[in-house]
Amino acid sequence: MTSLMSGLTLATTRVEAQAIKTDAEGIEAGEVAIPAADGPMPAYRAVPKGEGPFPVVLVVEEIFGVHDYIKDICRRLAKAGYCAVAPELYARQGDLSKMTDVKQIIAEVISKTPDAQWIGDLDATVAWATSAAKGDGKRLAVMGWCRGGRAAWLYDAHRTDLKAAVAWYGPLGGERTGIQPRTAGDVAGEIHAPLLALYGGADTGIPVASVEAARDAAKAAGKEVELVIYPEAPHGFHADYRPSYRKEAAEDGWSRALAFLKAHGV
Q1: Which part of the chain is the Dienelactone hydrolase domain (predicted)?
Q2: pTM exceeds cut of 0.70
Q3: Residue 109's CB: how many other CB atoms inside 10 A?
Q4: Is 20 exposed, middle or buried (0-12, 13-18, 19+ CB in 10 A)?
């Protein structure tokens, strides 16, 4: 992928009428190119108008790419005062804008993306945001959804200067491979920044027990994890463009996420 997709992903059922659409009034928003290790990486950046610098939130996509839902999240964060950047972390592995089959995405893109690669890309995004996008690297957070929720845990264990992390229903387990050697649960006791974990009690793919075990492992290591379980919410309850969307849980989680960032200096 050399540029971001337009519209919403084609790989899942969409309910476009309920999708939130945030305007760009008072902010600067659009596609950018971030210098990565082997060339420019497409990304979406939204930031308040004005000189800044503004606290930085790395926005980590689901498995579907940086489509309109992820772009809208960046605009929401910009309106809350953040420099929000969502890099297309799967650009090297495949063109997600053309993929319509979830199994194909997982087999051909997700499972073939080394953790070291996307972690390096997030580091490059931080460097770019602080040098070219009015971002304040001393106030840095990461927020991710689904696969991006997994990334929030792992990046928190990687980045020592992170101030806060928010994981929306990121899987804690999964297969370990040579290029993806550790799960989010494996690194729970190694996170550096306080982490807010937002999960659905009706998520059939992520047992609540696994999230509680990760929280307990973190706390046993002296780390801070705030866990919120929405009992009736399924996986993807924040994804307002999908049937899984649960308005009450999504809005409560969003309010908690913004409060969590501010409470921890972001």
Answers
A1: 41-264
A2: yes
A3: 20
A4: middle
Active site residue 235: yes
Q: Answer for the pair 169, 235: CB distance below 8 angstroms, yes or no.
A: yes
- CA 96 to CA 69: how far, in whole Å? 14
Report residue 168 as tokens. 């929306």
| Token representation of residue 94 | 């495949």
pLDDT classification of 39: cutoffs 50, 70, 90: confident
Closest CA to 214 of 202, 204, 229: 229
Q: Which of 203, 238, 240, 264 is catalytic?
A: 203
Q: What's the longest Cα–Cα distance across the chain?
A: 45
> Degrees (nearest 5) of the Cα angle 126, 84, 73?
140
CA distances from 163 to 28, 76, 94 (A): 24, 20, 32
Among the options 74, 83, 146, 156, which is catalytic?
146
Note the pLDDT tens digit of each residue in 220-249.
999 999 999 999 999 999 999 999 999 999
Rounded Cα distance, 218 and 103, in Å: 32
Angle, in degrees to the nearest 10, between helices 115-132 and 147-158: 70
Annotated active-site residue 74? The verdict is no
Residues 6+ apart with CB under 8 A from 167: 144, 149, 150, 152, 153, 184, 195, 196, 197, 198
The residue type at 226: E
